[in-house]
Amino acid sequence: MNNDVKNLINTLAKDHSLSFEQWVHIIKNYSDSDREYAAVKARSAAEKYYGNKIYFRGIVEFTNICKNNCLYCGIRRDNIGIERYRLSKEQILDCCKSAYSLGFRTFVLQGGEDSYFTDKVLGDIVYNIKSLFPDCAVTLSVGERSYDSYKALYDAGADRYLLRHETITPEHYAKLHPPFMSLENRIKCLYNLREIGYAVGCGMMIGSPFQTAEDLARDMLFISDFKPDMIGTGPFIPHSATPFRDFKQGSATLTLFILSLCRLAMPSVLLPATTALGTAKSDGRRLGILAGANVIMPNISPLAVRKDYMLYDNKAGTENTPLSELELIAAQLENTGYFLSSERGDKSND
Ligand code: SAH
């Protein structure tokens, strides 16, 4: 019965936790009306901490060279169909400079696992960004590295780190990743990042191949237990040059529901309405905000390299400049009551 899903949403909003069976139940049985009910509650939970502010972060996709081979990812090592590139320090700083003048106060450096970017090289870039823009946060999203490496980058000035756990179920993890990767190491990385002092983000794709409601329920339990500062979650979207080319795209509707559940489980978390959600559904980012997200992450990479950083097919916004992205998002937020905020947007203390 729908009614018991609403009861569980109320319980989640009040206690911020559910049992495994309860998570499975709501994920399997929710209706559109339950989803809308959760979205309204999630929105008011977000407002308690963030008012009507939506933060925006500029993503610089600074390298698509990757030694890894994740089966879902368009920049996986085995994809020989793309031109590989690395941005220079000057190019990265130029991206930040022009974005800064538009009001961006967080720069996210995202890339493949590219061994050219040693701690020294990447640390120098981070250090330069922080020296030029002391009022900005730098977020790194460059995959798995050693404790010492994370520490060196933190000491160079990095503030936050995004490392999606992808799935907390070991058998599922093994189906999404090459045999040389392990869930154990990925989770160890998350705990190392936390211990060092980073604001840490984890997360999973929605509807990744072989994912079950039980897998997602375990992801929600992991998130409730780990208590990340940020959660990155968006629908899986197939990429034509990966082994998952023929799998179905993840549901945007389920993604919206999961966003609301993440917000209710962790009311003060920083929660982006992702590019993948905006790709799966044209007004996806607006709906993501209305479901409880409070962050948007426009691409500020040079236009010339965008086509070579396709994690999935038809990625949205690859022709938009940072300015046109901001204008587009502002238009999408029209009549929602929410506004882009040019603050650095750290996690609100609860
Ligand atoms: N190399 C970095 C950044 C990876 S790309 C790292 O390992 O963290 C950032 C995120 O994009 C990934 O964590 C993954 O969840 C998501 N992603 C990759 N391929 C995708 C696809 N086909 N569909 C949707 N999301 C995808």
Summarize the entry for a quick read.
The protein has helices at residues 2-15, 20-29, 32-50, 89-101, 119-132, 147-155, 170-176, 183-196, 213-226, 252-265, 275-280, 284-290, 322-333; strands at residues 53-56, 58-63, 106-111, 137-141, 160-162, 199-202, 205-206, 230-231, 234-235, 272-273, 295-296, 339-341. It has one domain: Aldolase class I (TIM Barrel, Alpha-Beta Barrel). The two termini are 34 Å apart.
Task: Give structural notes.
It is built from 13 helices and 12 strands. The protein has a single domain, classed as TIM Barrel. Strand 3, helix 5 (119-132) and strand 4 (137-141) form a beta-alpha-beta unit. It has a 6-stranded parallel beta sheet with strand order 2-3-4-5-6-8. It has helices spanning 2-15, 20-29, 32-50, 89-101, 119-132, 147-155, 170-176, 183-196, 213-226, 252-265, 275-280, 284-290, 322-333; strands at 53-56, 58-63, 106-111, 137-141, 160-162, 199-202, 205-206, 230-231, 234-235, 272-273, 295-296, 339-341. 44% of the residues lie in helices and 12% in strands. The protein has 350 residues and is α/β, with parallel strands linked by helices.
